[in-house]
Design brief:
The protein has helices at residues 9-15, 30-34, 50-58, 71-83, 99-102, 132-141, 155-168, 183-186, 193-199, and strands spanning 40-44, 63-67, 89-92, 108-114, 142-152, 171-176, 206-211. By secondary structure, it is an alpha/beta fold. The structure holds S-adenosylmethionine. The site of S-adenosylmethionine has 19 residues, from helix 9.
Amino acid sequence: MRLRNITGARDIIAESEYVVQEPTEYKGRWKELFENNGELHIEVGMGKGKFLNEMARRNPHINYIGIEMYSSVLLRALQKMELDPLPNLRFLCIDARILPDVFEKGEVDHIYLNFSDPWPKDRHAKRRLPSRQFLERFDQILKADGRISFKTDNRDLFDFAVEELEPAGWKAEVITYDLHADEVLCEGNVMTEYEEKFSSKGNPICKYVIYR
Ligand code: SAM
């Protein structure tokens, strides 16, 4: 997702009460930020935040953190929060490569990857969020029985993601190549911005849920 640089986006983000400015300071004590013992779920590569906004609304007992590296994109999520603030949703403007500096071992209960950038060139494979390099980072922060959910309409990226599981030491609990056609798996599904866009064009949506 590339938006034009929006003038002042960085300043707005630096001053926003909804963005945690020094996330490494919360390592091991994210529950203090939310002032409760609820589970912590994160979306990596959140985009404009439509999915997490709806998830946080539906599940007030779960704390959510959206991670997005581009300030111009994150700005859109902030605009929604300002209109209708949610106490259980906060944002980080960081590159997900630093996640192990931000969360303690086992501190995160669930990781969502939605419509991650495909990085189609082989030499960029390690930038793909479902790559073994990122799974290694996620392994460091996810609790022992935690799960990662990944959705995409990009079949090449999904096939790559499934092939990465065994060498990275993960197992699939759920795999579907057409989420919206599966009544059981689709129950309670919250559509992301990209999911709405691509499913409305007729693209089937692939999804896995994995554990180790
Ligand atoms: N998840 C949203 C959805 O499904 O509508 C947005 C999908 S968009 C294609 C992918 C987003 O991931 C982009 O906004 C991009 O900036 C972000 N992203 C990609 N790699 C990232 C990384 N290493 N750290 C943080 N954000 C990342």
